[in-house]
Amino acid sequence: MQANSFATFVSILDGVPYASHVPLVARIEDEVVKLSGHLAKQNPQWQAFEATESLAIFTGAHAYISPTLYEKRESVPTWNYIAVHAYGFPKIIKLTDSPELMEKMIDEMVDTYEASYKNHWHNMPDGFREGMMNGIIGFEMVVTRLEGKYKLSQNRSQTDQQNVSNTLLNSSDPIAQAVGIEMQRNLESDKE
């Protein structure tokens, strides 16, 4: 989640799914996973927070897998991937209700994504900073359920897995190479 922190954040509002694509800060406090971030106040998704469960989807490396890489001729194309699903009930953070929590959330975001910007942010005029923070709804979500998902051809033979991994490792696409690396780790851990 920290390595692939730009997540798809999904909530249900009035029976309709809403999805936002947002950077999130993932941290562990007392063995509890917490996610924090913010949405534009104009984004209605935040109105679902606290009342309904939300889902943050973190997508890792993924790659197309050609059936030509398999020993068995009767095969079809597929996709290998790594993802994490984190569920919880986001707690709303507004500047007017909790200025200290809003400042903490912004500082964590800045520390995570561009720590050198922190001094610049804090030296901006108070009116500008307050205007920016009044235009967002911050949130913190305690993760109540965490699911790791991956498909790395683990249902295929060792030979097929090695063929796919080798092909991906030799790809010019760095994301495909990352899948190859994970497949290689998976193959090595199976040997132990």
Automatic annotation (TrEMBL):
Gene3D superfamilies: Electron Transport, Fmn-binding Protein, Chain A. Pfam families: FMN_bind_2. InterPro entries: Split_barrel_FMN-bd, TR_PAI2-type. This is FMN-binding negative transcriptional regulator. It comes from Oscillatoriales cyanobacterium SpSt-418.
